[in-house]
Amino acid sequence: MSIGRLMQGKPHADTPGVTIGAPRTYELCGALCFAGRRHRAFFRLAALSGAETGDRVLDVGCGTGYLTRRMAVAVGPRGAVTGVDPSRSVLAYARRRNRAGRGAECTYREGVAESLALPDGSFDTVVTSLMLHHLPDELRPSALAEMWRVLRPGGRLLVVEFRPPRSTLGRHLVHGGLGHAMSHNRTDLLDGLITGAGFEIRGSGDVRPWLTYVQGVRPESTVPTSDPASVPRPSGRG
Question: How buried is 208 (Cβ within 10 angstroms: 0-12 exposed, 13-18 middle, 19+ buried)?
């Protein structure tokens, strides 16, 4: 059995997406995979989000809250950070790790990316890391459309995904350890999904050793540019 399957939780009633059910195993895997660079990499992601002091931030698919807590430092005590995830066990873990006095207070709530129970335009910055590949292909446009909806006009988006190794051997090792969704993650489709939800892309790049990101912004006065169903989809689970 792969590490990926060991980390999976029970199916959530409101989504067919994969959930994480073993937070300690997930954290251990993260520490090993980043070989000591995880702390630096995620603080870099917080900076790339463009979040400013006092911002209201949403972390979609927050998992154990690793990025959520870095976002709290980025926005400071005057800001507010909300993490949403369908897994109760990882949310419980995230709440235990919440540290007062190191930035904004983090609030965690149960929910699914494709149907956020949050008001329109209620956040200045939305981030999501290592989440989209857990959703079936047909739900990814809906998840990004929800992120567009809850962002205020002019609000910022940061989408972070796992970048599979380029070598055949590397992909084989990732497939064996973490599963198909990681080893065949179609990061080349991110731009189309993000612009299809109505965002303007402002930048993209890689964060070593395994991450790729896309920065977007919700235009000041527009509606989504396309129906989620019209966005190109991957040929398989990625």
Answer: exposed
Task: Identify the domain containing residue 127 by its residue range.
Answer: 3-228
SS3 of residue 26 by DSSP: helix
Q: Helices in the chain by DSSP H: which ranges?
A: 3-7, 23-34, 38-48, 66-75, 88-97, 140-150, 168-178, 180-183, 190-196
Residue with tokens 């540019």: 225
H helices of 49-139, in order, are 66-75, 88-97
Q: Smallest Cα–Cα separation from 90: which of 111, 64, 68?
A: 64
CATH label of the domain that carries residue 183: 3.40.50.150
Closest of 69, 81, 64, 77 to residue 9, by C-alpha: 64
Q: Which residues pair with 162 in a beta bridge?
A: 211
Residues 161-189: tens digit of each pLDDT: 988 756 444 443 443 444 444 446 789 99
Query: What tens digit of pLDDT does each residue of 190-233 get?
Result: 999 999 999 999 999 999 888 999 999 999 976 554 454 444 44
- Tokens 């890689």 locate to 206
pLDDT value of residue 98: 83
Is 145 inside any structural domain? yes
In a domain, 27, yes or no: yes
Domain annotation covers residue 237: no
Domain tally, the chain:
1
- pLDDT for 193 equals 97
Is residue 135 a part of any domain in this protein?
A: yes
In sequence order, what are the residues at sequence separation of 6 or more whose Cβ sits closer than 8 angstroms to the Cβ of residue 127? 45, 46, 49, 51, 57, 58, 59, 60, 67, 71, 157, 158, 159, 160
* pLDDT band at residue 21 under the 50/70/90 scheme: confident
